Amino acid sequence: DAKTTQPTSMDCAEGRAANLPCNHSTISGNEYVYWYRQIHSQGPQYIIHGLKNNETNEMASLIITEDRKSSTLILPHATLRDTAVYYCIGSSGGSYIPTFGRGTSLIVHP
Amino acid sequence: NAGVTQTPKFQVLKTGQSMTLQCAQDMNHNSMYWYRQDPGMGLRLIYYSASEGTTDKGEVPNGYNVSRLNKREFSLRLESAAPSQTSVYFCASRVTGTVNTGELFFGEGSRLTVL
Q1: I want to staple A55 with a disulfide (CB 3.0 to 4.6 A). Which of A50, A107, B35, B79 is the partner?
Q2: How far apart, in whole angstroms, are the C-alpha atoms of residue B84 and residue B99?
Q3: Distance (Å, rounded) from C-alpha B58 to C-alpha A59?
């Protein structure tokens, strides 16, 4: 699985877009990019995933660069409840190990 | 839908005691995982089970054993607890296939303190 690199922390004003980057330069061709978030000490929660194309759902948008070496998770209108740790991981089929790094701690301030 | 259920949610042990953390999922997922999370750290994989009847070591398996009892249940056992095993433990499950897998579903966590 691809090793991912994320900034340790970021902050964002409430109501503004939060753009969280992830570098996954070693990602393989069949490896999806998954994003999760963890609020306080709860279990991580799935947000979105993608392979090549940009994706959008009710929670967020995912922009993947054409070379697939990096991606950006976008929370279009961040709220205080979006304060959490965000994890970017690679994932593919077959037998493999989903590996989480330390993620990005996002603080949304009033 | 209960999703992934972990028991107990809190436990205090003395050094040397043993205990088992239970995990059950009702989503018919074939793969299940046990992670631990220490303060300020990401999740580290202890053991996983890609399918019923199989288990494999993850990044930090020492001091733990697991049992994939059936498709639904995956337990984690501490035979002789040590203070270094004080942590929050998360169980997760997902569908895995040949092309891709589904997203991970996590339990609420089990907070273990070893004195």
Answers
A1: A50
A2: 38
A3: 31
Strand ranges, E, within B1-115:
4-7, 10-13, 19-25, 31-37, 43-49, 56-57, 64-68, 74-78, 87-94, 105-106, 110-114
Predicted confidence band of residue B64 (pLDDT cuts 50, 70, 90): very high
Chosen for mutation from B4, B31, B37, B43 (greatest number of chain A CBs closer than 10 Å) is: B43
What residues of B are in contact with residue A44 (Cβ under 8 Å)?
Answer: 43, 90, 92, 104, 106
B contacts of A101 (beta carbons < 8 Å)? 42
CA B73: distance to chain centroid? 10
> Quick check: B95 and B31 in contact, CB under 8 A?
yes
What tokens were used for B9? 């949610």
B57: left (phi over 0), alpha (psi -120 to 50) or beta: beta
State which residue of chain B sits closest to A32, comparing Cα positions: B100
- Asked if A41 has any chain B CB less than 8 Å from its own CB, the reply is yes
> In this complex, do B96 and A94 lie within 8 Å of one another by their Cβ atoms?
yes
Least confident of A38-47, A89-98, B66-75: A89-98
B71-95 burial, b at 16+ Cβ within 10 Å, e below that, comes to bbbbbbebeebeeebbbbbbbbbbe
**Which residues in chain A have their CB less than 8 angstroms from residue B90's CB?**
43-44
pLDDT 10s digits, A100-110: 888 999 999 99
Identify whether the C-beta of residue A40 lies closer than 8 Å to the C-beta of residue A63. no
